[in-house]
Fold this sequence. Notes:
Helices cover 15% and strands 61% of the residues. It is of the alpha+beta class. The chain has a single domain (2-158), classed as Beta Barrel (Porin). A hairpin with a 5-residue loop joins strand 2 (42-47) and strand 3 (53-62). The chain is elongated and about 50 Å long.
Amino acid sequence: xxxxxxxxxxxxxxxxxxxxxxxxxxxxxxxxxxxxxAVYPGAALKYMAGSKSAxxxxxxxxxxxxxxxxxxxxxxxxxxxTRLFFGLEADYITYKSDVSKGSGLAGGAFVGGELFLxxxxxxxxxxxxxxxxxxxxxxxxxxxQLEYVLNLGIYWHFK
Length: 159
C-alpha cells in the first residue's frame, strides 16, 4: 500500500513539474504589445513599452466613487512565467454620496507580481501605500490620509 501511494505521489509531482516547465515557455509579453485587464472593480489598458517597463491607464468605480489614472510598471524579472515588479500610480478621484460630493487626487507606489497562465492570459496582484487627498465641493472641507491598497486583475495580452 505504501509503495502504491509513493509511486502515485512521485508521478503526480513529475506531472506538476512538467506543467510548470510548460508555463515557463508561455510567458514573456513582447515589447510593443497591449494588454486589456479586468481589475477589481474596473478595467485597465496596458502598453509594454520595453522588456522592463509598461504603462497602464486604469479606471475603477464603485459605491459612488470613480478613480482614473496612469500607472508605471518596472519589471524586475523577465524570463519566467512569474514577473515581479514595482511601480508608481497617480489617480483623479470623484465621489458622490447622499450628503456630499467632491473630488481629489491620489498617488502612491506599489510592488507585486504577474503570473502567466498561458501566452496571453495573466493574473496580477500588487500592494502599496496611496496618499489620498479629497475635497468636498459643498462644505469646502478636505481630508488627506495614507491608505494601503490591494489590486487584483486578470489580463489578456494581445500578441
